[in-house]
Amino acid sequence: MRILSGIQPSGRLHLGNYFGMMKPAIEMQAEGEAYLFIADYHALTSVSDPAALRQATRDVAVDFLACGLDPERTVFFRQSDVPQVTELTWLLSVVTPMGLLERCHSYKDKIARGISPNHGLFAYPVLMAADILAYQSDVVPVGRDQKQHVEVTRDIAIKFNGQFGEVFKVPDVSIREEVAVVPGIDGQKMSKSYDNHIELFGDEKDTRARIMRIVTDSKPLEAPKKPESCNVFALYRLFAGDEQIEQMAADYCRGGYGYGSAKKALFDAMWGALEPFRRKRAELCRDSDYVESVLRRGADRAGAEADKTLKKARRAVGLD
Ligand code: ATP
Ligand code: MG
Asked: Which atom of ligand 1 approaches the CA of 146 most closely?
């Protein structure tokens, strides 16, 4: 079984990325052949500073290795090191109905946030389809926000196969329901580009400050509170053990327990849980040659697969 996932170097990785995608991808290494790429072509739809893109790409590589990605098991690479996907994107573009892209929530949400769209942002799902289909992936583990994009990929693959013959495997989407959407400090989906995120590897002071800014209702200390609708509780349960979670839920319902205390407990649980990753990360930061060599080797392996698919697709449409 081939499992594919990608992540944009569009900023520092955050808790939503970790629980929605990194952790499942790292755990799935044991279940099949994992392909994981740093989506730098995709990031260009929102990042226009070359130095920032380079830095974020390096950071994503280091963050994944620090969190337990095993480069022996996983083919780990930079998207742009396999430029074959851009040619495949074109071959897919010509079978992609406009309406399919116009319906994409992610695009509509970004516009609603005031992001002025370029054509790349609109065509983002087609490039994503090319990534998934180039490696003949079976399963794509993503957060709920990306479910529709994987469905678009399936539609495009079915359309292409119907028109030109069986070239692509039609992939399945896999979503962890318990962490489908991790909320940001404003209660919306946590996103790198919404400035509502809590970084996975932020410094202590900043992390604490951002946790303190998490939006809650304005119930006074003594009032009973609802754990299920609280953003602080939603984040706490990702880090805490079952007993701790039950304890906090009981404290909320009883009253006399304030959001300040819950935020402090969240910080402590998060900071402690990420400590081993921080240590590993510090080591990796001192060895950039190693990180680069991992990505080069991954690109060679991924490139060989993409070549095979592209050859089939070119022949199918009549280019060869
Ligand atoms: P951007 O704001 O630039 O779109 P992002 O933070 O949404 O960045 P992506 O690179 O688009 O991150 O997504 C990487 C992976 O992380 C995807 O699988 C996505 O589903 C997952 N993910 C992103 N945000 C969340 C979230 N808040 N909860 C759960 N999963 C998430
Ligand atoms: Mg996103």
From this structure: 20
